[in-house]
Structures are given as C-alpha cells and as structure tokens.
C-alpha cells in the first residue's frame, strides 16, 4: 500500500538520507540468532567497562512486514557507540525465546556492573501495545496476528527491561526503541501504538515516534531509519561535552526537522515526534576516558562566558531563562555551550507557552521546592529537587509531574492547589500519564467534567491506562 507508492514501509522509523560512511573505530560483534560480546577495544585503549550496550535488530518478519534497514541500523549504531566507549553486543532476528533470554542476560550483566556504569539498550523492529503494555515483537512473527498470539511472541518492555534494570542514580540507563508505535491500519489516524511510560530512577527512555503514531521505514537495506540515522550522526559529530540527555533532544529535533521538510508530502504528513521520558539524576557527557573527541580537547570557558553559563544553569523561572539564553547566544554565538543553550532556549519557550495557557493555573510563586514531609518519606535529596525544579522550567514534562507529587505529599490546601497546577503544566508539556493522574484527582474531587477533559487529553497524548486501573493510579 504505502510502500508501493513511496517505496517505504510503515514499521520502524525511517530515513531517506544517504547512508553514512563511517570508519570502524572499534570491533563490534554481530550475531544471527544469538549475541556475541565485543572483544576489540577502540584504538589505543583497553575495553571500557564503564559503558555497556546491547543492540537488538528484528527485521525478519513475514512479507510484507519485513524491515530491510534494520541490519544497517544495528551495525552503524554499534560503530558509533563503540566510538563513544561502549562495549557493544549485537543480536539480529531473535525469536521470542531468544529475545527473552538475551534481554535477561543483559539485565544480569548490568546488575553486576559498577554503579556508575552507563548502559544502553536499543531495539529496532516491530512494536505494539496490548492492554497498555508495550511489546517488542519476536522475529518471524506476523504483526497482524491475533493479540493473544502477539503477546505470546513478544517481550513486555516495562516488566522485562525497564523495571528489571537496577536503578542508576549515579549514572544512566538508556533505552532506545526505534519501532512502530501504531499499526498499518491506523497509520494515518489515531492509533494504539506503544504506550507512554515513566522512566525509572536514573533512566532515559526514548521512542522514535510519539505514542499512537506511525513510524516509517525505507524499503532499502542500504538506508538507515530516520531516527537511527540522526542518532548515529550526532553520536559521531557532537562535541564531547554534550550530555546524553541533550543528545537525544538533538536527535528529536533533527528527526522532526528532516521529516517536516522532506520533499515527499506523505513523509511530511507522517513526520515523527520522538518521545523522551527522563528521570536522570546526573548529566553524563558523551566524552569518555579513552577518547580525545577527535583530537579536540575541551577548553575552559573564559570567565565572563563561564559566569553567564552558570547563571543559566541556576535559573528556575522560564521568563528569566528565556532572557538569559537569548543574551548568551547573542554575546557568545560560537560558544562550546551554544548548542546546549539553544536547547534550553527552546525548552523555555515551550514552558512559557504552556504557562500562558488558560488551562494551566501555575504561577511564579509555585516554582518552589516543597519542604519534605519527613526525612524517611523524602526519596530525593534537596539538591535533586532543585535540579527537578530547574528542569521543569526548561519544559521537562516528567520533572514537572514529579514536582507535582512532592506538593501532593504535603496534604495541605496550598499543596493540593500546586499539585493540580503542576499536573496541568506537565499535561500541557505532553505528559499523558500526568494528565490521567489529574483526571483521577478530579474524579475524587467530584468534578466529572474536568475529569473527562483531563482523561481525553491523556488519551490524545497517547496514554492508555491499564484496564484494571479503575479510579486509582498505579
């Protein structure tokens, strides 16, 4: 259907850019239906145990659901990650049993690694949602099979990976899913693709497209998908001081720009809006101990520039952040931090747009850290709460939801008002889970009209609550 007209699949996210020509900078293992650990380190280094990656590519599905670009995705991404110091394991075309075993072994390996290890799990292939659970479909399965068969032949992302990985408060667990978030029948309408998720502590979860929306894939095995092409390029080319959090924001921006400006109208119509769930506590730069970032040593900023940069980092009100970022970029357009400041500027603009919405009752006086209910009940250190507040000012939908819950815990009238305001803000920023939580609050408060509006917003954002949820959040 769409493939015949445009020479592409609806499956994993796709690209029409020319394939990147990347030299091999480290040995990256490749396997058919099993995984083989990487045994060759980047040049002039020893294997870096501080960064572990598992890349799974499932492209072997019954015609017409096969995904030709997947092998290239995995190979190119493996090389780019090795360049950034990852010990990479690759696996291709895993059926459901091999998929389960490979992921279980990776979880065990992560659990045995030091607490400061950065980990990355990548899956490219077919994905779908059944009963609010995100499923990664085993190779050889038909994506259009009955749901009970799909459940039996899939890995449940939330349970088998996200919840199974140990928390990384002092490092980072990264999960990247470059897969369909809807099915072919719903490609041009509202689908029921992969569900929105909340990232566990110390985790960054990235989907190649928005919940309930399609992703597109080229029919050629010589091309990367849109999302992976952007990720590979930025891993290779971004400055060493760019953090992984900012990297995935840059990937999101590039995918949106590339697809919205594509010469094919159908690609513009199906432009992907990658989804990011962020619950990290530390910022990890791309640079690592065994690299010199292509010979470019990071230089300290001049004193005035450093002071301006630090002021931006410590600002927690979007209006002030917007002004400071504009001033920084006007004064230091060639700064090593210019790319990051540009991201902060975009986030501040979005935050301000939402705060000015009549549906959001959140004011400057609400941008405060609530006092902890008790030392035992506070799961976050004050420094972490301060960081959450600043991230929320930059348009972080997940940080905004966590700030809301801190206010709810106070169980005071002011705390409840701020809880509602912060959930409204998080919902406006695109957090469907926060919007559904707001709906549950309105139900408890006997405000059915507001509850219905908040629930409709949650579903519009692609969040499908569990069937057994009822009126209580899980």
Automatic annotation (TrEMBL):
Keyword presence, Transmembrane helix: no
Domain spans labelled Peptidase C14 caspase: 51-278
Keyword terms: Signal
Annotated Pfam families: Peptidase_C14 (PF00656)
GO CC, any one term: membrane
Signal peptide: 1-26
KW Transmembrane helix (keyword) present: no
Gene Ontology MF term list: cysteine-type endopeptidase activity; serine-type peptidase activity
GO biological process: proteolysis
Listed transmembrane segments: none
This protein's name: Peptidase C14 caspase domain-containing protein
Protein source organism: Limnobacter thiooxidans
